[in-house]
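re: ur question from yesterday

yeah so i grabbed the chain u mentioned. its 318 aa long if i counted rite. heres the sequnce exactly as i have it in my notes:
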Amino acid sequence: MALAPAPPADRQFEHHVLDFLAYLEFERGLSRNTLEAYRSDLLQLGAYLQRVGVGVLEAQHQQLSGVLQDLAAGSPGRPPVAAATLQRKAACLRSFYRHLRRENLLDGDPTADLRAPKKSQKLPQVLSRDEIAALLAAPVGDEPGAVRDRALLELMYACGLRASEAVALEVRDVDLDAGVLRARGKGNKERLVPIGREAVQAARVYLARSRPVLVGLADEPHLFVNQRGQGLTRQGLYKIVQRHARSAGLQGRMSPHTLRHTFATHLLAGGCDLRALQEMLGHADIATTQIYTHLSAERLRDVYFRAHPRASTASPVA
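ran it thru and got these C-alpha cells back, copy pasting raw so excuse formatting
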C-alpha cells in the first residue's frame, strides 16, 4: 500500500510504516479503510516525534504518551480528538511497536503501559420484540421490491449482518436447504451463520418470484438487487431500512446496524452462549461482544423494577 508523500516522516520512519502496513494488509488481511486509519495515526506520530526530536526506534513511553496527550488537548485550528478515537490511536501505536519488536528492531516495548482516556460506553439502540415485528411487517404487497425488502430485513435480523455484509451477499452464499449463509466480514473473513425459519421462507419467495423479475436476463451474482437488477449499494440498503422504519413508527430510532444490535441482544436474552454469539457476529475479540451483556443486564434491570412487587425504590414504611 503506497504512502502519500509526508514531510513530517523521515525516511527511516516511512520505511517502518510501509513495512507495518504491508504486514497488516497481506498477513492479517485488514481492509483498506482500516489501513488508511492506521496510516493516518502513524503519520501523526511521525510528525510529533520529529517535533520533539526523537527517532521512531528511540521513542519511549513519555513521547508516545505525549502524542496522545497532544491530540487530546487539541490546538488552534485543530479540535481535541475524541476519547474513542484516542483509544483507536493508542491501539495502533501498540500494534506498530509490537511489530517493530517482532522484527528485532527493539529490545523492549515502549507501549507496554500506554493508555488512552477511557471512552464512555454508549449502549447501542435496540428494538423490542414488538418493534422488530412491526418493522418486519412493514414491507407490504407482492411487488418485487416489497418482497425483496421483506427478505432483506428478515435476513439481516435473523443473521446479525452488517450493512456491508448484506449487500455483499451472493446467491451462492445462501444455502436455504441447510438453513445457513456465508457472510464476509471485516478483513474479508468468512463465517457461517444459521438462518431462522421465517428468514428462510422470505428468501425462498424472493428468489423464486421477485429476484428473477428484477434481474431479468442479466448475469448478476449479488443476492439483493435494486430496481435496475444491479447489486444493492449500502446507500440503497440504508434508504430501504429508513423507509420501512418510518412506516413502522420507528423513524429516528434505527439504522441498518440496529438490526445487528437487536439480533445480538435478543439472542443473549434467549440464553445464547457469549462465545457462540461472538462467532455469529464475526467479532475477533470477545470484549467487543460483551457490550451486549451490559445491554441485556440494563434491559433486565428495567423489566425487574417495573414488574417485581417488592422492587420499588421507595423506602418501606416502618
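noticed a couple things. The CA atoms of residues 76 and 301 lie 45 Å apart. also Strands lie at 174-175, 180-184, 190-194.
anyway ttyl
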